[in-house]
Amino acid sequence: MAKLLTKEDIRNILSSRFEKDECTKLEELPKPKSFKDIDKASLRIVSAIRNGENIAIVGDYDVDGVVSSVILSTFFDDIGVEYELVIPNRFSDGYGLSLGIVQKLDAKVIITVDNGISAIEPARYCKENGIDLIITDHHSIPSQTPDAYAIVNPKQEDCTFPNCEICGAQVAWYLVAAIKEKLGIKYNLSSFLDLLCIAIMADMMELKDMNRVMVKKGIEALNRSRRPAFEAIKRYFCKKCLESDEISFLISPLINSSGRMEDAKFSYNFLKSSSIENAMDRLEYIVGLNNERKDEERHLFEDSLRYVKDDENIIIAWGEEWHEGIVGIVASRLSKRFKKPAIVFSITGDRAKGSARGVGEVNILSLVEQQKDILLGFGGHKGAAGVSLKKDKLGEFRDRMYLAAREIEGAKLKASPDVLGEIEPSAIDFELLEILEEFEPYGQKNPKPSFILKDIYVKVDKKLGKDKNHLKLILEDGNTTLESIFFNFDKEARRGEKISILFTVSKNDYRGLVTPQLLIREII
After folding, report:
1. CA within 20 to 30 Å of 294's CA: 159, 174, 250, 447, which one?
2. pTM tops 0.70
């Protein structure tokens, strides 16, 4: 019989994840000067500020891009700098800095945040027309980089910044730090920690080292924040405080929804709201968009299931006019449900635009890149990527990806560093909650611990939700009773049965009484 985990075992395993962290407090964060081109970029911006030259900021429509835009524009607001802001519309502008956007701007200096590393043509146009383009980004470096005035991206080979796995908002924040230094002014950089923790978690950055420090401190700042947007979220959703789970499952989807469904400017304006009343009005609208997103997601997910092939290591799905803003979430749901990477395309006219999601240790961007000779464009991270191609190349792309994915070792697909082991029902108590809380926030490289319970009795079973797609179980073992829920369950359990489950533990705070609640991942 396998050894059951003790609480001391759990604490030791979780503690070992951070043994090699070099940054354990804010004072130890790397300095801005270690970024390649940051001095050049900040000096040029300071010169533009002092000479009254027109400055433009170009952001992105996801959470990271919106937060990046809020950080840089708020800094400019606070120090009295005028600027023009563009957050591209997913549907009319496409991703990132385009030639069309640049040609519309009346600016001598253009600063990108969370995008730009693939903007070859826009950079050429800027150079030919006397516009200084400053790119701040964190995405993977393509084989050809733009000929920009300055590129601030930690993934550049000759960049000495010690952590390349940071998000776009962190790069923008470092640019603010460098500008502040060059201007010789006092400015409270920690005032952005509440926003930064959201961007870091939403963009699925590794929650170790400096990212872990910034998120932990950021969540504290989030709960002290006087930003009307966060006060509005607390009031609207009746939250006393906001924790890491609220960032992942409430705040991030809300901020993302406007860019997915309509225009990310709604979320940008919400985060910059100047009053609670103003923020509440904007939040109402965004909640409506998010509800639309959920309905659309459910339909697309059900439609995509016919593309799942048991004998292939990857899922490739597509549909005419599938909602472009939703395909990424559907790809994510498919990869989690079937434990294999997924790419979902929306076809409009003769083009297909897709979102890819990896699983386990699979590098989805590398798999996509192998097909670059038939692609119109691609980019992203190891775990998530965007890809576009001609509609008539979809079949060839699918067949090539099937072949490439057959080379993936089974261990990489199933890699699950979060399963700690088997635990006794009686060990799931308030003390365990405290241990798990100590090592938050959970995410990339610090996955939320999962445990196994074997042969536990089902006392109550109940289906919940509008579509009865969630399963609530009361589990019993001797004197121990445990409440559990299985969202979007794919296997039933009935009263009177004994089951074995893979689960995580969450905190259920009902009327001030805190108890553990099991979130079932799988009925084994």
Report:
1. 447
2. yes
Whether the pLDDT of residue 391 is over 80: the answer is yes
The CATH number of the structural domain formed by 31-225 is 3.90.1640.30
Q: Which residues pair with 458 in a beta bridge?
A: 475
H-run or E-run covering 521: strand 513-523
Segments in 38-94 forming alpha helices (H)? 38-51, 63-78
What single string gives the DSSP state of each residue in 360-375? TT--HHHHHHTTGGG-
Residue 20's nearest CA partner among 217, 215, 214, 212 is 212
Place of tokens 């004998």: 311
Please determine, looking at this structure, whether the domain spanning 308-414 carries the CATH number 3.40.50.2000: no
Amino acid, res. 477? D
Of 475, 509, 465, 510, which is closest to residue 495 (Cα–Cα)?
Answer: 475
State the Cα–Cα distance between residues 157 and 234, nearest whole angstrom: 43
Q: Report d(CA 99, CA 382) in Å as an integer.
A: 27
Q: Tokens for 443, please give them.
A: 């995410």
For the chain, domain boundaries: 7-12+416-523, 31-225, 308-414
In which band, very low, low, confident or very high, does the pLDDT at 255 lie, cut at 50, 70 and 90? Answer: very high
Q: pLDDT tens, 47-64?
A: 999 999 999 999 999 999
Following CA atoms 444, 448, 449, 451 in sequence, which dihedral angle do they give, to the nearest 10 degrees? -120
What digits encode the pLDDT tens for the residues 433-459?
999 999 999 988 898 999 999 999 999
Alpha-carbon distance 265 to 36, whole Å?
A: 30
Find out whether 150 and 41 touch, Cβ atoms under 8 Å: yes
Measured CA distances, 472 to 51, 387, 492 (Å): 63, 38, 10
Which token pair is 481? 């009773």
Structure tokens at 237: 């959703």
Fold of 7-12+416-523: OB fold (Dihydrolipoamide Acetyltransferase, E2P) (2.40.50)
Short-list 384, 311, 380, CA closest to 343: 384
